[in-house]
């Protein structure tokens, strides 16, 4: 067990720090959370800066246009960008962490050449068309249909909870191509152009008051067969590759951010007198232990991925379960620190407390994650 | 950075596990419960295997390994519920004659308690006014002392490693039971309520594991304080959930679950108090280095 960085890794960190110190002051001001076109422009602008500096797609393989960095370097990248207050991956989330790695792993050379460079250069935004109104946690129960018609699929159905749908160029879309097959088979993974005729996006307002995601309606939308990634009816396997990326690495930078917020909470409590409450102090101390351990868990999982050289494993479910609850506890503690101000929607921590509520639901609810841990890691029988 | 067990560390862990499985399996554990007392033959065997001299330099007759290896060995001790003042004797190796080889049994004042006071050959710390307690753990005789010793971080780290082993073992016991025990015509592990208890046990074990291993690598007092909080949680809540999964059987003396639970409770009293660990970690947040 070794937690020290190699000279190469330290050199990488130093170079990144130097670049961030120069690059960040030139960023435009952060747009309003409700201004989606401005958010898209801001996020893509940051991606372009990363691309020009050679930091785009750091963890992507070299032959996919990435840097082929080790998982440890990726970890250092996420740690340093967060510490420096650099923009979050934002609208590039699905493209960089999800669709991109999936296409890199499963796509044809033509597909890789068409879709990967624009993601890295900050030219195209992807969204995720997995969940449906009647198939959220039971993802495989999806009903959106695709019929073959010549060189096209004709797609009809609807998707929901689609983040960035309003400003996305492409959607990683799961469709049912064989309704007669068992539900986990008969699914295919398509790349859908969001401006194709028949695609309608209706924004959904979240409990935080903003429009973070949308419903997407698909009415006889034509998608070229050439836009299918993986074999027909093999989409579930392709999807599992995608989901393991999401669960394995998606929250790394956020752990660093949570540790920063925890320090801010302590200093705010010290300033406003709440620090004198031993119950609150002990709570903050325990959260410090919690987030230290979550950071170690991240390092452990990254090291494991590095030694297996492959896709992150089900250990991501362990992390996601613990992290999503810890994050909610963190913002509950923030409310204790704020006192009456916790009722003020103008406070950043109050908004963050609201958005933390989604963490135990998004990307597979905690209940689904517990089933995964129990069945796939512990080997308990599937329930009826 | 390669935060994973090395091949040597895996071999060491497997070796200790093999030794303890052969020497202190379930039958030996239950026999010890019926006839408590320090098994000096076992103690010398542990000494011969290098359990106490693990971190002693080779020049001084030790094995010459480090804290991470010691933590792996103590995790196995916790897994098998090995009785005796293991931590105190390990920490006395090289300082108290005969401790390294297991010839001398050493105990120490840890917090407000002393374990195995009357059976040990050497006692470290001030035991003036020590009063025997009726120990909650049938395999850990206890005395209460009026004063408290300065809490040593290594006591807490090695104790956390034992807690981790106990937590991991009780998770396995719960899962084994849930897979085989049938109710309503199916294994109880098929019910989500049971399944989710088991999943949460594993999540606590894996979170505690990385905290304990990282603290062994850094030896940083704050990492150790964090590791002890998470390992205590994993062991105390894990043994309780294991008892719950076992249902009525879990509440009987015949089931082993209570032995794990009681030892976990006793271990939470070693070193500084849980409150002090939490306060220490809270203070660190103000310093801004967290």
UniProtKB/TrEMBL annotation, chain A:
<comment type="similarity">
    <text>Belongs to the acyl-CoA dehydrogenase family.</text>
</comment>
<dbReference type="InterPro" id="IPR009075">
    <property type="entry name" value="AcylCo_DH/oxidase_C"/>
</dbReference>
<dbReference type="Pfam" id="PF02771">
    <property type="entry name" value="Acyl-CoA_dh_N"/>
</dbReference>
<dbReference type="InterPro" id="IPR006091">
    <property type="entry name" value="Acyl-CoA_Oxase/DH_mid-dom"/>
</dbReference>
<dbReference type="GO" id="GO:0050660">
    <property type="term" value="F:flavin adenine dinucleotide binding"/>
</dbReference>
<keyword id="KW-0274">FAD</keyword>
<dbReference type="GO" id="GO:0005886">
    <property type="term" value="C:plasma membrane"/>
</dbReference>
<dbReference type="InterPro" id="IPR009100">
    <property type="entry name" value="AcylCoA_DH/oxidase_NM_dom_sf"/>
</dbReference>
<dbReference type="GO" id="GO:0016627">
    <property type="term" value="F:oxidoreductase activity, acting on the CH-CH group of donors"/>
</dbReference>
<keyword id="KW-0560">Oxidoreductase</keyword>
<dbReference type="InterPro" id="IPR046373">
    <property type="entry name" value="Acyl-CoA_Oxase/DH_mid-dom_sf"/>
</dbReference>
<feature type="domain" description="Acyl-CoA dehydrogenase/oxidase C-terminal">
    <location>
        <begin position="233"/>
        <end position="378"/>
    </location>
</feature>
<dbReference type="InterPro" id="IPR013786">
    <property type="entry name" value="AcylCoA_DH/ox_N"/>
</dbReference>
<feature type="domain" description="Acyl-CoA dehydrogenase/oxidase N-terminal">
    <location>
        <begin position="6"/>
        <end position="123"/>
    </location>
</feature>
<dbReference type="InterPro" id="IPR037069">
    <property type="entry name" value="AcylCoA_DH/ox_N_sf"/>
</dbReference>
<keyword id="KW-0285">Flavoprotein</keyword>
<dbReference type="InterPro" id="IPR052161">
    <property type="entry name" value="Mycobact_Acyl-CoA_DH"/>
</dbReference>
<protein>
    <submittedName>
        <fullName>Acyl-CoA dehydrogenase</fullName>
    </submittedName>
</protein>
<dbReference type="InterPro" id="IPR036250">
    <property type="entry name" value="AcylCo_DH-like_C"/>
</dbReference>
<dbReference type="Pfam" id="PF02770">
    <property type="entry name" value="Acyl-CoA_dh_M"/>
</dbReference>
<feature type="domain" description="Acyl-CoA oxidase/dehydrogenase middle">
    <location>
        <begin position="127"/>
        <end position="221"/>
    </location>
</feature>
<dbReference type="Pfam" id="PF00441">
    <property type="entry name" value="Acyl-CoA_dh_1"/>
</dbReference>
TrEMBL record, chain B:
<dbReference type="InterPro" id="IPR009100">
    <property type="entry name" value="AcylCoA_DH/oxidase_NM_dom_sf"/>
</dbReference>
<dbReference type="GO" id="GO:0003995">
    <property type="term" value="F:acyl-CoA dehydrogenase activity"/>
</dbReference>
<dbReference type="Pfam" id="PF02771">
    <property type="entry name" value="Acyl-CoA_dh_N"/>
</dbReference>
<dbReference type="Pfam" id="PF00441">
    <property type="entry name" value="Acyl-CoA_dh_1"/>
</dbReference>
<feature type="domain" description="Acyl-CoA dehydrogenase/oxidase C-terminal">
    <location>
        <begin position="158"/>
        <end position="264"/>
    </location>
</feature>
<dbReference type="InterPro" id="IPR013786">
    <property type="entry name" value="AcylCoA_DH/ox_N"/>
</dbReference>
<dbReference type="GO" id="GO:0050660">
    <property type="term" value="F:flavin adenine dinucleotide binding"/>
</dbReference>
<feature type="domain" description="Acyl-CoA dehydrogenase/oxidase N-terminal">
    <location>
        <begin position="6"/>
        <end position="91"/>
    </location>
</feature>
<dbReference type="InterPro" id="IPR036250">
    <property type="entry name" value="AcylCo_DH-like_C"/>
</dbReference>
<keyword id="KW-0274">FAD</keyword>
<keyword id="KW-0560">Oxidoreductase</keyword>
<dbReference type="InterPro" id="IPR037069">
    <property type="entry name" value="AcylCoA_DH/ox_N_sf"/>
</dbReference>
<keyword id="KW-0285">Flavoprotein</keyword>
<comment type="similarity">
    <text>Belongs to the acyl-CoA dehydrogenase family.</text>
</comment>
<protein>
    <submittedName>
        <fullName>Acyl-CoA dehydrogenase</fullName>
    </submittedName>
</protein>
<dbReference type="InterPro" id="IPR009075">
    <property type="entry name" value="AcylCo_DH/oxidase_C"/>
</dbReference>
């Amino acid at each position: 067990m070794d937690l020290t960085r190699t000279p190469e890794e330290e050199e990488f960190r130093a170079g990144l720090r130097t670049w961030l110190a120069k690059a960040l002051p030139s960023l435009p001001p952060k747009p309003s959370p409700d201004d989606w076109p401005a958010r898209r422009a801001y996020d893509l602008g940051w991606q372009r800066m990363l691309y020009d500096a050679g930091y785009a797609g750091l963890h992507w393989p070299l032959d996919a246009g990435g840097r082929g960095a080790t998982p440890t370097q990726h970890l250092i990248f996420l740690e340093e960008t967060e510490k420096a207050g650099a923009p979050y991956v934002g609208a590039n989330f699905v493209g960089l962490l999800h669709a991109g790695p999936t296409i890199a792993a499963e796509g044809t050379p033509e597909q890789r050449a068409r879709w990967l460079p624009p993601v890295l250069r900050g030219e195209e935004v992807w969204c995720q068309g997995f969940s449906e109104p009647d198939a959220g946690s039971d993802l495989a129960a999806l009903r959106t249909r695709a019929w073959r018609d010549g060189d096209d699929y004709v797609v009809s159905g609807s998707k929901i909870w689609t983040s960035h749908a309003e400003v996305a160029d492409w959607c990683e879309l799961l469709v049912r191509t064989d309704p007669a097959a068992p539900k986990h088979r008969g699914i295919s993974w398509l790349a859908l152009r969001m401006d194709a005729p028949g695609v309608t996006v209706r924004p959904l307002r979240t409990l935080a008051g903003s429009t973070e995601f949308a419903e997407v309606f698909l009415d006889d939308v034509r998608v070229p067969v050439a836009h299918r990634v993986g074999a027909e009816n093999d989409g579930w396997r392709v999807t599992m590759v995608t989901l393991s990326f999401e669960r394995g690495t998606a929250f790394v930078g956020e752990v660093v951010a949570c540790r920063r917020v925890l320090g801010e909470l302590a200093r705010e409590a010290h300033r406003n007198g709440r620090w004198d409450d031993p119950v609150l102090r002990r709570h903050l101390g325990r959260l410090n232990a919690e987030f230290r351990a979550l950071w170690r868990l991240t390092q452990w999982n990254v090291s494991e991925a590095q030694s297996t050289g492959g896709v992150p494993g089900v250990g991501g479910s362990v992390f996601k379960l613990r992290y999503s609850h810890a994050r909610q506890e963190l913002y509950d503690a923030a409310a204790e620190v704020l006192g009456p101000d916790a009722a003020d929607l103008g406070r950043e921590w109050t908004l963050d407390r609201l958005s933390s509520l989604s963490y135990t639901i998004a990307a597979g609810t905690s209940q689904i994650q517990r089933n995964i841990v129990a069945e796939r890691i512990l080997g308990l029988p599937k329930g009826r | 950075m390669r935060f994973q067990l090395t091949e040597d560390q895996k071999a060491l862990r497997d070796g200790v596990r093999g030794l303890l499985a052969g020497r202190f399996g379930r039958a030996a554990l239950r026999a010890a419960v019926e006839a408590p007392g320090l098994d000096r033959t076992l103690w010398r065997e542990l000494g011969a295997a290098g359990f106490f001299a693990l971190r002693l330099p080779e020049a001084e007759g030790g094995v010459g390994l480090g804290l991470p290896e010691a933590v792996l060995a103590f995790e196995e001790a916790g897994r098998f519920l090995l009785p005796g003042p293991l931590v105190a004797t390990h920490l006395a190796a090289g300082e108290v004659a005969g401790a390294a080889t297991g010839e001398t049994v050493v105990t120490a004042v840890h917090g407000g308690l002393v374990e195995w006071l009357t059976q040990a050959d050497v006692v470290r710390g001030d035991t003036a006014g020590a009063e025997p307690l009726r120990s909650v753990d049938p395999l850990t005789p206890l005395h209460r002392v009026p004063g408290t010793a300065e809490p040593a971080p290594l006591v807490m780290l090695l104790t956390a490693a034992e807690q981790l082993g106990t937590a991991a073992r009780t998770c396995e016991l719960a899962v084994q039971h849930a897979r085989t025990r049938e109710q309503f015509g199916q294994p109880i592990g098929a019910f989500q309520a049971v399944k989710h208890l088991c999943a949460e046990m594993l999540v606590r074990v894996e979170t505690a594991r990385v905290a304990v291993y990282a603290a062994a690598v850094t030896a940083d007092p704050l990492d150790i304080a964090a590791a002890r909080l998470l390992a205590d949680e994993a062991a105390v809540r894990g043994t309780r959930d294991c008892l719950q999964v076992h249902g009525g059987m879990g509440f009987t003396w015949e089931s082993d679950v209570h032995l794990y639970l009681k030892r976990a409770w006793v271990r939470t009293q070693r070193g500084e108090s849980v409150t002090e660990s939490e306060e220490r970690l809270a203070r660190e947040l103000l310093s801004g280095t967290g």
